[in-house]
From TrEMBL:
Family, as annotated: Belongs to the polyribonucleotide nucleotidyltransferase family.
Highest taxon listed in the record's lineage: Bacteria
EC number: 2.7.7.8
Lineage: Bacteria, Pseudomonadati, Pseudomonadota, Alphaproteobacteria, Acetobacterales
Species name: Nguyenibacter vanlangensis
Name of the featured protein: Polyribonucleotide nucleotidyltransferase
Enzyme class: transferase
BP GO terms, sorted: mRNA catabolic process; RNA processing
Domain S1 motif, chain residue ranges per copy: 359-427
Entry annotated with the keyword Cell division: no
Gene name per UniProt: pnp
Protein backbone atom coordinates (compact mmCIF):
# COMPACT_ATOMS: atom_id res chain seq x y z
CA UNK A 1 0.00 0.00 0.00
CA UNK A 2 0.97 3.62 -0.39
CA UNK A 3 2.07 4.27 3.19
CA UNK A 4 4.25 1.16 3.35
CA UNK A 5 5.80 1.99 0.01
CA UNK A 6 6.52 5.54 1.16
CA UNK A 7 8.23 4.18 4.29
CA UNK A 8 10.47 1.82 2.30
CA UNK A 9 11.39 4.47 -0.29
CA UNK A 10 12.03 6.98 2.48
CA UNK A 11 14.21 4.50 4.36
CA UNK A 12 16.26 3.81 1.21
CA UNK A 13 16.76 7.53 0.63
CA UNK A 14 17.75 8.10 4.25
CA UNK A 15 20.32 5.29 4.03
CA UNK A 16 21.88 6.81 0.93
CA UNK A 17 21.98 10.30 2.44
CA UNK A 18 23.46 8.96 5.67
CA UNK A 19 26.16 7.14 3.71
CA UNK A 20 27.03 10.27 1.76
CA UNK A 21 27.19 12.34 4.93
CA UNK A 22 29.45 9.76 6.56
CA UNK A 23 31.91 10.17 3.71
CA UNK A 24 31.84 13.93 4.12
CA UNK A 25 29.85 14.61 0.96
CA UNK A 26 27.03 17.14 0.59
CA UNK A 27 23.90 15.04 1.19
CA UNK A 28 21.51 17.91 0.36
CA UNK A 29 22.88 18.11 -3.16
CA UNK A 30 21.90 14.47 -3.70
CA UNK A 31 18.20 14.91 -2.80
CA UNK A 32 17.12 16.17 -6.28
CA UNK A 33 19.14 13.34 -7.84
CA UNK A 34 17.29 10.78 -5.73
CA UNK A 35 13.95 12.17 -6.95
CA UNK A 36 15.15 11.89 -10.55
CA UNK A 37 16.36 8.35 -9.88
CA UNK A 38 12.99 7.38 -8.41
CA UNK A 39 11.19 8.72 -11.48
CA UNK A 40 13.64 6.93 -13.80
CA UNK A 41 13.16 3.61 -11.99
CA UNK A 42 9.37 3.84 -12.16
CA UNK A 43 9.26 4.97 -15.80
CA UNK A 44 11.82 2.41 -16.99
CA UNK A 45 10.00 -0.44 -15.26
CA UNK A 46 6.76 0.49 -17.03
CA UNK A 47 8.37 0.78 -20.46
CA UNK A 48 10.69 -2.20 -20.19
CA UNK A 49 8.61 -4.73 -18.25
CA UNK A 50 5.03 -3.42 -18.45
CA UNK A 51 4.78 -3.56 -14.65
CA UNK A 52 3.74 -0.62 -12.52
CA UNK A 53 4.46 0.53 -8.97
CA UNK A 54 1.83 -1.72 -7.39
CA UNK A 55 2.53 -4.69 -9.67
CA UNK A 56 -0.39 -4.18 -12.06
CA UNK A 57 -0.08 -4.35 -15.82
CA UNK A 58 -0.97 -1.35 -18.00
CA UNK A 59 -4.72 -2.02 -18.29
CA UNK A 60 -5.74 -3.50 -14.93
CA UNK A 61 -8.09 -1.43 -12.75
CA UNK A 62 -7.66 -1.61 -8.99
CA UNK A 63 -10.20 -3.65 -6.95
CA UNK A 64 -13.58 -1.92 -6.66
CA UNK A 65 -16.16 -2.07 -3.87
CA UNK A 66 -19.49 -0.22 -4.23
CA UNK A 67 -22.05 0.20 -1.45
CA UNK A 68 -25.33 2.13 -1.44
CA UNK A 69 -27.81 3.20 1.23
CA UNK A 70 -25.16 3.27 3.96
CA UNK A 71 -26.57 6.46 5.56
CA UNK A 72 -30.15 5.64 6.58
CA UNK A 73 -31.41 9.22 7.00
CA UNK A 74 -29.84 10.56 3.82
CA UNK A 75 -32.06 10.64 0.73
CA UNK A 76 -29.37 8.73 -1.15
CA UNK A 77 -25.83 7.64 -0.30
CA UNK A 78 -22.97 5.62 -1.73
CA UNK A 79 -19.48 4.57 -0.69
CA UNK A 80 -17.28 3.98 -3.73
CA UNK A 81 -13.83 2.46 -3.16
CA UNK A 82 -11.25 1.82 -5.85
CA UNK A 83 -7.93 0.66 -4.48
CA UNK A 84 -6.83 3.27 -1.95
CA UNK A 85 -9.19 5.94 -3.27
CA UNK A 86 -12.58 6.26 -1.59
CA UNK A 87 -15.49 8.70 -1.89
CA UNK A 88 -18.47 8.97 0.45
CA UNK A 89 -21.20 10.57 -1.65
CA UNK A 90 -24.52 11.90 -0.32
CA UNK A 91 -27.52 12.91 -2.43
CA UNK A 92 -30.16 15.30 -1.09
CA UNK A 93 -33.45 16.09 -2.82
CA UNK A 94 -35.22 19.43 -2.51
CA UNK A 95 -37.86 21.56 -4.18
CA UNK A 96 -37.66 24.35 -6.74
CA UNK A 97 -37.19 26.78 -3.84
CA UNK A 98 -33.80 25.12 -3.23
CA UNK A 99 -32.43 25.72 -6.72
CA UNK A 100 -29.11 27.52 -6.98
CA UNK A 101 -29.34 31.02 -8.46
CA UNK A 102 -26.26 31.81 -10.54
CA UNK A 103 -25.43 35.38 -11.53
CA UNK A 104 -23.34 34.78 -14.66
CA UNK A 105 -21.97 37.16 -17.28
CA UNK A 106 -24.76 36.23 -19.67
CA UNK A 107 -27.41 36.86 -17.02
CA UNK A 108 -29.01 35.20 -14.04
CA UNK A 109 -30.18 31.62 -14.27
CA UNK A 110 -31.12 28.75 -11.96
CA UNK A 111 -29.88 25.18 -11.77
CA UNK A 112 -31.50 22.22 -10.05
CA UNK A 113 -28.30 20.14 -9.86
CA UNK A 114 -25.39 21.00 -7.58
CA UNK A 115 -22.26 18.95 -6.93
CA UNK A 116 -19.80 19.82 -4.18
CA UNK A 117 -16.45 18.01 -3.94
CA UNK A 118 -14.49 18.12 -0.69
CA UNK A 119 -10.90 16.96 -0.30
CA UNK A 120 -10.03 17.07 3.42
CA UNK A 121 -6.37 16.80 4.42
CA UNK A 122 -6.93 13.57 6.34
CA UNK A 123 -7.69 11.78 3.05
CA UNK A 124 -3.95 11.79 2.32
CA UNK A 125 -2.80 11.29 5.92
CA UNK A 126 -2.22 14.94 6.72
CA UNK A 127 -3.42 17.33 9.41
CA UNK A 128 -4.61 20.63 8.02
CA UNK A 129 -7.19 23.37 8.30
CA UNK A 130 -10.64 22.64 6.86
CA UNK A 131 -11.54 25.81 5.00
CA UNK A 132 -13.62 26.87 2.04
CA UNK A 133 -13.14 24.95 -1.24
CA UNK A 134 -10.05 25.85 -3.26
CA UNK A 135 -9.66 26.05 -7.00
CA UNK A 136 -8.74 22.37 -7.23
CA UNK A 137 -11.86 21.27 -5.36
CA UNK A 138 -14.10 23.56 -7.41
CA UNK A 139 -12.55 22.29 -10.64
CA UNK A 140 -12.88 18.63 -9.71
CA UNK A 141 -16.48 19.20 -8.67
CA UNK A 142 -17.29 20.89 -11.96
CA UNK A 143 -15.68 18.05 -13.92
CA UNK A 144 -17.84 15.51 -12.09
CA UNK A 145 -20.88 17.78 -12.58
CA UNK A 146 -20.30 17.82 -16.33
CA UNK A 147 -19.94 14.03 -16.37
CA UNK A 148 -23.29 13.35 -14.69
CA UNK A 149 -25.46 16.28 -15.80
CA UNK A 150 -26.28 14.99 -19.34
CA UNK A 151 -27.81 11.82 -17.85
CA UNK A 152 -30.20 13.57 -15.45
CA UNK A 153 -33.96 13.45 -16.10
CA UNK A 154 -35.81 16.58 -17.17
CA UNK A 155 -37.78 18.66 -14.68
CA UNK A 156 -41.07 17.41 -16.14
CA UNK A 157 -40.13 13.82 -15.29
CA UNK A 158 -38.37 14.55 -11.99
CA UNK A 159 -39.19 17.98 -10.53
CA UNK A 160 -36.64 17.84 -7.72
CA UNK A 161 -33.57 19.92 -6.95
CA UNK A 162 -30.58 17.60 -6.47
CA UNK A 163 -27.51 18.35 -4.37
CA UNK A 164 -24.50 16.03 -4.25
CA UNK A 165 -21.73 16.24 -1.67
CA UNK A 166 -18.67 14.06 -2.25
CA UNK A 167 -16.34 13.64 0.71
CA UNK A 168 -13.03 12.07 -0.23
CA UNK A 169 -12.14 9.86 2.72
CA UNK A 170 -9.04 8.29 1.16
CA UNK A 171 -7.03 9.29 -1.89
CA UNK A 172 -4.40 7.65 -4.04
CA UNK A 173 -5.21 8.90 -7.51
CA UNK A 174 -8.33 9.95 -9.41
CA UNK A 175 -10.61 11.04 -6.60
CA UNK A 176 -12.64 13.12 -9.08
CA UNK A 177 -13.49 9.99 -11.07
CA UNK A 178 -14.41 8.19 -7.84
CA UNK A 179 -16.76 11.11 -7.25
CA UNK A 180 -18.39 10.51 -10.64
CA UNK A 181 -18.97 6.84 -9.82
CA UNK A 182 -20.22 7.59 -6.31
CA UNK A 183 -22.51 10.35 -7.57
CA UNK A 184 -24.13 8.00 -10.06
CA UNK A 185 -24.78 5.42 -7.34
CA UNK A 186 -26.01 7.96 -4.76
CA UNK A 187 -28.46 9.52 -7.23
CA UNK A 188 -29.87 6.12 -8.16
CA UNK A 189 -30.11 5.24 -4.46
CA UNK A 190 -32.12 8.45 -3.97
CA UNK A 191 -34.60 7.36 -6.64
CA UNK A 192 -33.36 9.66 -9.41
CA UNK A 193 -34.16 8.01 -12.78
CA UNK A 194 -30.77 8.45 -14.44
CA UNK A 195 -30.82 7.62 -18.13
CA UNK A 196 -27.75 5.44 -17.60
CA UNK A 197 -25.14 4.91 -14.88
CA UNK A 198 -21.97 6.98 -15.25
CA UNK A 199 -18.39 6.01 -14.41
CA UNK A 200 -14.98 7.64 -14.76
CA UNK A 201 -11.36 6.58 -15.01
CA UNK A 202 -8.01 8.41 -15.04
CA UNK A 203 -5.45 7.47 -17.70
CA UNK A 204 -1.71 8.08 -17.46
CA UNK A 205 1.23 8.17 -19.85
CA UNK A 206 4.93 7.35 -19.78
CA UNK A 207 6.62 8.68 -22.91
CA UNK A 208 10.30 8.42 -23.81
CA UNK A 209 12.25 8.45 -27.06
CA UNK A 210 12.26 4.65 -27.12
CA UNK A 211 8.47 4.36 -26.82
CA UNK A 212 5.39 5.08 -24.73
CA UNK A 213 2.92 3.31 -22.46
CA UNK A 214 -0.64 4.30 -21.58
CA UNK A 215 -1.73 3.41 -18.03
CA UNK A 216 -5.29 2.76 -16.86
CA UNK A 217 -6.49 3.89 -13.42
CA UNK A 218 -3.33 5.67 -12.34
CA UNK A 219 -2.02 6.03 -8.80
CA UNK A 220 -1.08 9.36 -7.30
CA UNK A 221 2.63 8.63 -7.84
CA UNK A 222 1.99 7.67 -11.47
CA UNK A 223 0.36 11.06 -11.89
CA UNK A 224 3.34 12.86 -10.30
CA UNK A 225 6.06 10.85 -12.06
CA UNK A 226 4.25 10.39 -15.37
CA UNK A 227 3.54 12.69 -18.29
CA UNK A 228 -0.27 12.82 -18.40
CA UNK A 229 -3.41 12.76 -16.30
CA UNK A 230 -6.28 12.14 -18.71
CA UNK A 231 -9.69 11.84 -17.02
CA UNK A 232 -12.49 10.21 -19.05
CA UNK A 233 -16.06 9.83 -17.78
CA UNK A 234 -19.14 8.47 -19.50
CA UNK A 235 -21.60 5.63 -19.92
CA UNK A 236 -21.48 2.34 -21.77
CA UNK A 237 -22.49 4.23 -24.92
CA UNK A 238 -20.02 7.12 -24.89
CA UNK A 239 -18.10 9.91 -23.20
CA UNK A 240 -19.73 12.73 -21.26
CA UNK A 241 -16.69 14.52 -19.83
CA UNK A 242 -12.95 14.82 -20.56
CA UNK A 243 -10.04 16.58 -18.92
CA UNK A 244 -6.35 16.32 -19.78
CA UNK A 245 -3.29 17.58 -17.91
CA UNK A 246 0.03 16.94 -19.65
CA UNK A 247 3.61 17.74 -18.68
CA UNK A 248 5.03 17.30 -22.17
CA UNK A 249 4.57 19.50 -25.22
CA UNK A 250 2.06 17.28 -27.01
CA UNK A 251 0.77 13.79 -27.66
CA UNK A 252 0.22 11.98 -30.95
CA UNK A 253 -3.09 10.83 -32.44
CA UNK A 254 -1.94 7.26 -31.81
CA UNK A 255 -1.53 7.93 -28.08
CA UNK A 256 -4.95 9.58 -27.92
CA UNK A 257 -6.59 6.67 -29.73
CA UNK A 258 -5.02 4.10 -27.41
CA UNK A 259 -5.86 6.18 -24.33
CA UNK A 260 -9.53 6.51 -25.31
CA UNK A 261 -9.82 2.80 -26.12
CA UNK A 262 -8.24 1.75 -22.83
CA UNK A 263 -10.48 4.24 -21.04
CA UNK A 264 -13.53 2.67 -22.69
CA UNK A 265 -12.47 -0.80 -21.56
CA UNK A 266 -11.79 0.43 -18.04
CA UNK A 267 -15.07 2.37 -17.90
CA UNK A 268 -17.08 -0.70 -18.91
CA UNK A 269 -15.32 -2.76 -16.24
CA UNK A 270 -16.07 -0.13 -13.58
CA UNK A 271 -19.72 0.07 -14.65
CA UNK A 272 -19.92 -3.71 -14.29
CA UNK A 273 -18.57 -3.51 -10.74
CA UNK A 274 -20.97 -0.69 -9.89
CA UNK A 275 -23.89 -2.77 -11.22
CA UNK A 276 -23.28 -5.23 -8.39
CA UNK A 277 -24.63 -2.56 -6.04
CA UNK A 278 -27.30 -0.87 -8.19
CA UNK A 279 -28.16 -0.82 -11.89
CA UNK A 280 -30.88 1.82 -12.05
CA UNK A 281 -32.73 4.37 -9.96
CA UNK A 282 -34.92 3.03 -7.18
CA UNK A 283 -38.65 2.90 -7.90
CA UNK A 284 -39.43 5.63 -5.36
CA UNK A 285 -37.58 8.35 -3.49
CA UNK A 286 -36.52 7.90 0.12
CA UNK A 287 -39.17 7.99 2.83
CA UNK A 288 -37.36 10.98 4.35
CA UNK A 289 -37.34 12.91 1.06
CA UNK A 290 -40.14 15.30 0.12
CA UNK A 291 -42.81 13.87 -2.17
CA UNK A 292 -43.61 16.23 -5.02
CA UNK A 293 -47.08 16.21 -6.57
CA UNK A 294 -47.79 18.30 -9.66
CA UNK A 295 -51.21 19.69 -10.50
CA UNK A 296 -52.37 22.25 -13.06
CA UNK A 297 -54.81 25.11 -12.68
CA UNK A 298 -56.11 27.66 -15.21
CA UNK A 299 -53.69 30.56 -15.55
CA UNK A 300 -56.41 33.05 -14.69
CA UNK A 301 -56.84 31.28 -11.33
CA UNK A 302 -53.21 31.71 -10.24
CA UNK A 303 -53.91 35.03 -8.54
CA UNK A 304 -56.75 33.43 -6.58
CA UNK A 305 -54.40 30.72 -5.28
CA UNK A 306 -51.74 33.27 -4.34
CA UNK A 307 -54.14 35.83 -2.89
CA UNK A 308 -53.51 39.48 -2.15
CA UNK A 309 -49.92 39.88 -1.04
CA UNK A 310 -49.55 36.07 -0.92
CA UNK A 311 -52.09 35.76 1.87
CA UNK A 312 -53.91 32.71 0.50
CA UNK A 313 -50.83 30.69 -0.41
CA UNK A 314 -49.29 31.37 3.01
CA UNK A 315 -52.46 30.14 4.68
CA UNK A 316 -52.38 26.94 2.59
CA UNK A 317 -48.71 26.33 3.49
CA UNK A 318 -49.40 26.93 7.19
CA UNK A 319 -52.48 24.71 7.15
CA UNK A 320 -50.93 21.79 5.24
CA UNK A 321 -47.25 21.98 6.17
CA UNK A 322 -46.29 21.51 2.52
CA UNK A 323 -44.05 23.63 0.29
CA UNK A 324 -45.78 25.04 -2.78
CA UNK A 325 -44.26 26.45 -5.99
CA UNK A 326 -46.42 28.06 -8.67
CA UNK A 327 -45.27 28.54 -12.27
CA UNK A 328 -46.64 31.14 -14.66
CA UNK A 329 -48.20 28.43 -16.86
CA UNK A 330 -50.46 27.29 -14.01
CA UNK A 331 -48.33 24.32 -12.94
CA UNK A 332 -48.28 23.93 -9.16
CA UNK A 333 -45.73 21.69 -7.43
CA UNK A 334 -46.56 20.56 -3.92
CA UNK A 335 -43.72 19.11 -1.86
CA UNK A 336 -44.68 17.30 1.32
CA UNK A 337 -43.14 14.78 3.67
CA UNK A 338 -46.39 12.83 3.97
CA UNK A 339 -49.41 12.02 1.82
CA UNK A 340 -51.66 13.76 4.35
CA UNK A 341 -49.82 17.08 3.92
CA UNK A 342 -50.05 16.86 0.14
CA UNK A 343 -53.75 15.93 0.27
CA UNK A 344 -54.55 18.92 2.50
CA UNK A 345 -52.78 21.33 0.15
CA UNK A 346 -54.38 19.86 -2.97
CA UNK A 347 -57.83 19.96 -1.39
CA UNK A 348 -57.44 23.65 -0.54
CA UNK A 349 -56.13 24.54 -4.02
CA UNK A 350 -58.82 22.52 -5.79
CA UNK A 351 -61.41 24.26 -3.67
CA UNK A 352 -60.09 27.68 -4.67
CA UNK A 353 -59.96 27.04 -8.41
CA UNK A 354 -63.08 24.87 -8.66
CA UNK A 355 -66.15 26.41 -10.27
CA UNK A 356 -69.49 25.94 -8.48
CA UNK A 357 -71.70 23.50 -10.31
CA UNK A 358 -75.27 24.59 -10.94
CA UNK A 359 -77.66 22.49 -8.86
CA UNK A 360 -74.86 20.95 -6.74
CA UNK A 361 -75.11 20.78 -2.96
CA UNK A 362 -72.17 21.87 -0.80
CA UNK A 363 -71.37 22.11 2.90
CA UNK A 364 -70.30 25.60 3.91
CA UNK A 365 -69.82 27.96 6.80
CA UNK A 366 -71.66 31.23 7.44
CA UNK A 367 -69.02 33.97 7.33
CA UNK A 368 -71.29 37.02 7.56
CA UNK A 369 -74.91 37.88 8.16
CA UNK A 370 -76.88 40.85 6.84
CA UNK A 371 -80.47 42.07 6.85
CA UNK A 372 -80.99 40.62 3.37
CA UNK A 373 -79.40 37.20 3.97
CA UNK A 374 -76.23 35.31 4.86
CA UNK A 375 -72.88 34.92 3.11
CA UNK A 376 -71.64 31.34 3.09
CA UNK A 377 -68.14 30.14 2.31
CA UNK A 378 -68.78 26.82 0.58
CA UNK A 379 -66.00 26.03 -1.93
CA UNK A 380 -62.47 26.85 -0.88
CA UNK A 381 -62.36 30.63 -0.79
CA UNK A 382 -65.63 30.92 -2.73
CA UNK A 383 -68.51 32.72 -1.01
CA UNK A 384 -72.13 32.87 -2.03
CA UNK A 385 -75.27 34.63 -0.83
CA UNK A 386 -78.23 32.87 0.71
CA UNK A 387 -81.02 35.45 0.35
CA UNK A 388 -83.26 35.80 3.37
CA UNK A 389 -86.07 34.27 1.32
CA UNK A 390 -83.93 31.12 0.77
CA UNK A 391 -82.94 30.59 4.40
CA UNK A 392 -85.98 28.56 5.41
CA UNK A 393 -89.25 27.20 4.04
CA UNK A 394 -91.28 29.61 6.15
CA UNK A 395 -91.17 33.37 6.26
CA UNK A 396 -88.00 34.74 7.93
CA UNK A 397 -88.18 38.12 9.60
CA UNK A 398 -84.53 38.30 10.62
CA UNK A 399 -81.49 36.47 9.25
CA UNK A 400 -80.10 35.69 12.68
CA UNK A 401 -83.32 33.92 13.58
CA UNK A 402 -82.09 31.06 11.32
CA UNK A 403 -78.28 31.29 11.12
CA UNK A 404 -75.40 33.01 12.83
CA UNK A 405 -71.80 33.59 11.86
CA UNK A 406 -69.78 30.37 12.15
CA UNK A 407 -72.74 28.01 11.58
CA UNK A 408 -72.10 25.04 9.26
CA UNK A 409 -74.90 24.69 6.74
CA UNK A 410 -75.77 22.82 3.56
CA UNK A 411 -76.55 24.90 0.48
CA UNK A 412 -77.56 24.36 -3.13
CA UNK A 413 -76.28 26.45 -6.03
CA UNK A 414 -79.28 28.15 -7.65
CA UNK A 415 -77.40 30.23 -10.20
CA UNK A 416 -75.27 33.32 -10.75
CA UNK A 417 -76.10 36.98 -10.95
CA UNK A 418 -74.89 39.43 -13.60
CA UNK A 419 -71.61 39.96 -11.72
CA UNK A 420 -70.87 36.25 -11.40
CA UNK A 421 -71.82 36.09 -7.73
CA UNK A 422 -73.23 32.76 -6.59
CA UNK A 423 -76.83 32.51 -5.47
CA UNK A 424 -77.39 29.81 -2.83
CA UNK A 425 -80.33 28.25 -1.05
CA UNK A 426 -80.72 26.48 2.29
CA UNK A 427 -84.47 26.19 1.90
CA UNK A 428 -84.34 23.41 -0.70
CA UNK A 429 -81.77 21.29 1.18
CA UNK A 430 -82.47 19.01 4.13
CA UNK A 431 -80.01 20.38 6.70
CA UNK A 432 -79.64 17.03 8.43
CA UNK A 433 -79.17 14.67 5.49
CA UNK A 434 -78.05 17.09 2.78
CA UNK A 435 -80.73 15.78 0.45
CA UNK A 436 -82.27 17.95 -2.28
CA UNK A 437 -85.94 18.59 -1.35
CA UNK A 438 -86.77 21.05 -4.15
CA UNK A 439 -89.61 18.88 -5.44
CA UNK A 440 -91.11 18.69 -1.96
CA UNK A 441 -91.02 22.36 -1.02
CA UNK A 442 -91.18 23.94 -4.47
CA UNK A 443 -88.63 25.93 -6.39
CA UNK A 444 -89.58 29.32 -4.95
CA UNK A 445 -90.97 30.34 -1.57
CA UNK A 446 -94.54 31.46 -1.38
CA UNK A 447 -95.14 35.21 -1.10
CA UNK A 448 -96.73 36.44 2.13
CA UNK A 449 -100.32 37.69 1.81
CA UNK A 450 -100.70 41.37 0.94
CA UNK A 451 -101.86 43.73 3.63
Amino acid sequence: VKQERYKKVGAAKEAVLAGLAAEGLNADAAKPMLKELEADVVRSAVLDTGLRIDGRDLKTVRPIVSEVGILPRAHGSALFTRGETQALVVATLGTAQDEQVIDALEGEYRTNFMLHYNFPPYSVGECGRMGSPGRREIGHGKLAWRAVHPLLPGKDAFPYTMRIVSEITESNGSSSMATVCGTSLALMDAGVPLRRPVAGIAMGLIKEDRGFAVLSDILGDEDHLGDMDFKVAGTELGVTSLQMDIKITSITPEIMKIALEQAREGRLHILGEMAKALTEGRADVSASAPKITTISVPKEKIRDVIGQGGKVIREIVEYSGAKIDINDDGTIMIAATSEDQAAKAIERIRGIVAEPELGAIYTGKVVKTADFGAFVNFLGARDGLVHISELSQGRVAKTTDVVNQGDVVKVKVLGFDDRGKVKLSMRVVDQETGADITETVGAKPGRPPAR
